[in-house]
């Protein structure tokens, strides 16, 4: 499907850029729009020829944000889930200590309703 879209975008962009450079589509002129379509079509063709398992939009986004399986392998090299669990436990302990401190301060001023 990507190959078909890529080829169609390249052909449509080439026709716009070569034969209709002064044609206007709203704000767009034919030549710049045609060049943009050729570039986008080329990118689509390149992506379609890569030899890897296709991913959905959400999987790509997870990888970009560092949450996907590609980054999970790197985490395991650095200590794996044990390191993440340790960090999570430290964060929870810090939150618990903060809550206790807030509660102590609140008890001090319980008799002063204006504060």
Summarize the structure.
With 115 residues, this protein is mainly α. 74% of the residues lie in helices and 3% in strands.
Strand residues, percent? under 5%
Structural class, judged by helices and strands?
mainly alpha
Summarize the biggest pleated sheet: 2 strands, antiparallel
Say how many strands there are: 2
N-C termini distance:
65 Å
The helix tally amounts to 5
Strand order of the largest sheet: 1-2
Give the radius of gyration.
28 Å
* Helicity level: over 70%
Which descriptor suits the 3D outline?
A: elongated
Mean pLDDT: 77
Spans with pLDDT under 50 lasting ≥5 residues?
none
Characterize the structure shown:
- The chain is mainly α.
- The chain is 74% helix and 3% strand.
- The longest helix is centred in the C-terminal third of the chain and has 29 residues, at 80-108.
- The protein has helices at 2-19, 30-49, 57-65, 69-77, 80-108; strands at residues 24-25, 28-29.
- The N and C termini lie far apart (65 Å).
- It has a two-stranded antiparallel sheet with strand order 1-2.
Defining key terms:
single chain, 115 residues, two-stranded antiparallel ribbon, 2 strands
């Amino acid at each position: 499907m990507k190959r078909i879209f890529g080829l169609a975008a390249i052909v449509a962009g080439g026709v716009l850029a070569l034969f209709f450079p002064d044609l206007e589509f709203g704000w767009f002129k034919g030549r710049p729009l045609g060049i943009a379509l050729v570039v986008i079509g080329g990118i689509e063709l390149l992506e379609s020829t890569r030899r890897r398992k296709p991913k959905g939009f959400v999987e790509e986004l997870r990888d970009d944000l560092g949450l996907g399986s590609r980054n999970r392998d790197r985490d395991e090299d650095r200590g794996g889930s044990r390191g993440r669990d340790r960090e999570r436990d430290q964060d929870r302990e810090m939150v618990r200590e903060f809550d206790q401190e807030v509660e102590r301060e609140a008890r001090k001023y319980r008799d002063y309703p204006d504060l």
